[in-house]
Design brief:
Number of strands: 13
Bound molecules: acetyl coenzyme *A
Helix content: 25-40%
Distance between the termini: 19 Å
Radius of gyration: 19 Å
Shape: globular
Order of helices and strands: EEHHEHHEHEHEHEEEEHEHHHEE
Largest sheet: 9 strands, mixed
Length: about 350
């Protein structure tokens, strides 16, 4: 029997507080016009002070598990009940984040494991910047494939970038937002590769660009020192122009490589779900490849750049709106800190 790794549930969690460009412009030296025209961003959602990465990650995972149990409604009690049915059947939690609850240990995935009651699941975090979910999906597929004992995994992308911003750096802080997305994946069959689900993934890295998107302080390269006073939290520092140029190439190169690896034409593709750091980056890449705009699912206007959460949030939105049909060829494509980039080929 052929085996496939299918997505059987999707979920997302986005903080209710929506912050418009105008609201930001009242606090920092920027305008709605500048942000929209340079990035396509109109809003971002920002978590409350008390919320950490694992809180959003767990909520997204619970929503995905409820769907995996057959419940796609919005009654909180039903979501909880349905998710609790699936929780003990999860063998693996893979959480992609650049904004963990804690540095180093424990992993945020372990905290999520406890919060969602997935008592039989192994748990680990992945650090691959905004490509984290793409890496996570391939990691889950690989880990399910190699072990006869593992059947189900949850892959989560979750970020609280608002807590890792220098709010005095207007060229960076306007770009990011908070959120989480999750999918439940299940192994169907027991050997070889099937024709549906996650068919294959391409993962790339270029560590020579590590400095162009970095959180410099707090690690072993630049630990805090006794007596030191710091004005900002550990924050994202970015060379916008360098990342922009890398990103356009990363999206177009990855899409071309996926097309060759999967032996299809772009006309065959139902949806491309890109990481969304800047709508201009996606536009430049799609024009290079001459792919029609309507094949790209975009939601940057609402959420800004939610890093590893962007792609799973988009998948959940599309899924719940009924935009993903059985048999659709769906490509994900991500790029981000590391530098990393890559994509997944999925038959929905
Ligand atoms: N509001 C108003 N003006 C601003 C703002 C702002 N928020 N930010 C910068 N400016 C000003 C600059 O000071 C500069 O002014 P000057 O000409 O007087 O010096 C001017 O706007 C132009 O600045 P540029 O940096 O040239 O603007 P650019 O068009 O390159 O856009 C941007 C900057 C949006 C950051 C762009 O380079 C970009 O999107 N880069 C990639 C970002 C990205 O992809 N990041 C994440 C990738 S991976 C991940 O998702 C973690």
């Amino acid at each position: 029997m052929k085996m496939s790794i299918e997505i059987i549930g999707t979920g997302r969690a986005v903080p209710p507080r929506k912050v418009s460009n105008d609201e930001l412009a009242a606090q920092i030296d920027t305008t709605d016009e500048w942000i929209r025209s340079h990035t396509g961003i109109g809003n971002r959602h920002i978590a409350d002070e008390s919320v950490a990465c694992s809180d959003l990650a767990a909520e997204a995972a619970i929503n995905a598990m409820a769907m995996a149990a057959g419940y796609s409604g919005d009654d909180p009690a039903e979501i909880k009940r349905a998710a609790a049915e699936v929780a003990p059947t999860i063998d693996m939690i893979i959480l992609a984040t650049a904004t963990a609850d804690y540095y180093g240990t424990p992993s945020t995935a372990c905290i999520v494991q406890d919060k969602i009651g997935a008592k039989n699941a192994a748990a680990m975090d992945i650090t691959a910047g905004c490509t984290g979910f793409v890496y996570g999906l391939e990691t889950a597929a690989g880990l399910l494939c190699v072990s006869p004992n593992r059947k189900r995994a949850i892959v989560i992308g979750a970020e609280l970038l608002s807590k890792m911003m220098n709010w005095d750096d207007r060229s960076t802080c306007v770009l990011f937002g908070d959120g989480a997305g999750a999918v439940v994946v299940e192994k169907i069959g027991d050997c070889c590769q099937g024709k549906t689900g996650i068919l294959q993934s391409l993962l790339f890295a270029d560590g020579s660009g590590a400095d162009s998107l970095v959180m410099k302080r707090g690690g072993t390269r630049a630990p805090y020192k006794k007596g030191e006073t710091v004005d900002t939290p550990i924050c994202v520092e970015m060379n916008g122009q360098e990342v922009y140029n890398f990103a356009v190439g990363a999206i177009s190169d990855t899409l071309k490589a996926l097309k060759e690896a999967g032996n299809f034409n772009f006309e065959d593709v139902a949806w491309i779900v890109p990481h969304q750091a800047n709508a201009r980056i996606v536009k430049a890449a799609r024009m290079r490849l001459r792919i029609p705009e309507e094949k790209f699912y975009m939601n940057i206007e609402e959420y800004a750049n939610t890093s590893s959460a962007t792609i799973p949030i988009a998948l959940d939105e599309m899924n719940r709106k009924g935009q993903l049909k059985k048999g659709d060829l769906v490509l994900t494509v991500g790029f981000g800190g590391g530098l990393t980039y890559g994509g997944n080929i999925i038959i929905w």
